[in-house]
Amino acid sequence: MSLQRLLGSVGPAVLSGVCAPKGTAVPVGDVVIAEPDGGFDLRPGDLVLGVNLTDRSQALRLLSACAARSAGALLLKAPAAVDETVVTAASAAGLPLVQVEQQAGWAQVVSLLRAVLDSEGYADSGTGAVGAEAGDLFGLADAIAAVIDAPVTIEDRSSRVLAYSARQERGDEARVATIMGRHVPDDVNAHFRRHGVFRRIAQDTGPIYVPAVVEGTKPRLVVPVHAGGDVLGSIWAIVPGPVPAERAEAFADTAAVAALHLLRRRAGADVERLVLTDMVATVLHGQEGAADAARRLGLTAGPWRVIAVGVRCEDDEEAERQRLTVWERMSRFRGSRLRPPAAIVGGVVYGIVPAETATWPTDGGPAWLETLCGATGRPAPLVAVGGLAASVPGLARSREQADDTLDLLRTGLIASAQAVHDDVWATVVLRHVARSAAAARITGVGPLQQLVDHDEAHGTSGVPTLHAWLLEMGDPRAAAARLHIHPNTLRHRMRRLQDVVALPLDDPQVRTALLLQLTARQYGGEAGAETYSA
C-alpha cells in the first residue's frame, strides 16, 4: 500500500501529511511502535509511531534512526510533528513526516493503521480491490454529508465503520469513538439494539430517526443500504433534531449509490476472505502446502496456540453478525505486530495466536481472551484454546485439541464459557472413551442395564450409588460424601442393589468394566454430563 492511499483511507481527522520529500506514492509496510530506549525492530518501509514523544531532541534522534533504516514514514503528534527543526531534518533525510491529531489515542491509531493495511489483503492474494474502494467510500461519505448537511459515517451490517465524512466539529463523543475504533462503541450499539434500530434497518428501506438518549450523543438519521433483499450496511448522519421530509428523502436516495459501492467492496472482501480462509484451513488441518500457507500468513516463529470460538445464537443472521464480530476482533489483536490469522471454518471462528497471549487474566485485570468473550454481547461466545504448537505441523494438533475443548463447552460437560485444553485434557479423554464405548454399544452389555431399568421403574438410586462407590474405590465415607448422604445410607443402598442384580464387586475386571460403562453413560450424551445425586 502507498502512503497516499493510507492517508486517504484513514482520513484527515486522524492523520495529515507534514512533509513528503519523495512524494506520497512511496510504499509502506507494517506498523512499528518506537520504544523509549530506541530499541525496536524495523524493516524498510515500516511506519514508525513516536508514541508520547514530544521532545525535539528525542524526535530528531528517532528521525535519524528511521532514515538510516529506510522507514516508510514517521508519525508524531504536535508539537514535535510541526517543529520547524524536525520538519527540516525530515525533508533533508528524505523521510515522510505525518502528524497524528491530538485527540487520537495511540492505541486507536495502531488499530486504524493495521485495519487499513489489512484491507490490502495478504501479499499473494491479489485482491487489492477492497483497499482501492476505501478512497471512493470516503468521497461518497463527503458527498452524502453535503446532501444531509451533517457529518456521516458509512457502516457495514456488523457496525464496522467503512468510511466517514468531514465536519468533525458537528459530531459527538460517540462519533469520535466510532471513527477512532472503526467500530460503534459497545454501549452505544447496545442502546441502538434495545430500541430496535438494527431490526428496522433489516426490515425498512426509508430513513430512521433515532432520538438522543445516551449521554454524550446527538440524534441520528439512519438510512439502510439494501440490495436484492440483503442488508449491506447503513448510513448514519448526526442531526440536531427531526429532519424535514424533503431533506430526509434526498438522504434516503443516496442509499442506492452506497449500495453499489458496498456490493463492489463486499465482492472484493469475499474473495480476500476466501483466500485467507483457504490458507488458514490448510494450516489448521495439516494439508499439503501447509508450510507455504503458514509462511504467507506470517507464521514464522512459534510457539502458537489455536483458538476456536463458537457463538451461541439461534437466529442465523445474529449468529453470522457475532461470528464476523469475533473474527474482526481476533484479526485485530492489539499489543503485537503480528496480526493473527483468523478465519471462519464450518461455523467456528479459528485464530492462530502467539502462545503467550492465549492466557486468561490471573490478577483480575483485563486480558485479550476475556475481551473476546465479551465482544458479541449475551450470550457470550464459547472460547476454546488448544495446546501448545511449537511448529507449523503442530498447529493441526492444536486445532484438534481446541475442537475437543469446544465440544466439552457446547455439551455442558464443562460448566464454563471458556477453557484451555491443558486444563481439561482428562475430560477430553473421558469424552473420547465414552464416544467409542457408545459406538461399540458396551453400555448394554452385562448386568448394568438391569440396574438402570430398576431405578427407572421404582425411583431408586442404585446407579448413582454404584458409580460413587466405584469412583471412590469402595470407600463408603468418600462415596457418601460425594452423594451428600450418610455412610450408613450408602452401605444400605449397596446391599439393596445387590438384591436387584448380582455384581461380583470383589473382581477388579468387573469393577473396571462397570466404571467404563458408567463413564460412557456420563460423558457420551450430547446434553451434558449426567448428574448423580442422592
TrEMBL record:
It comes from Streptomyces mooreae. Residues 464-519 form the PucR C-terminal helix-turn-helix domain. It comes from the Bacteria. This is Helix-turn-helix domain-containing protein. InterPro entries: CdaR-like_regulators, CdaR_GGDEF, PucR_C-HTH_dom, PucR_C-HTH_sf. Belongs to the CdaR family. Residues 288-407 form the CdaR GGDEF-like domain.
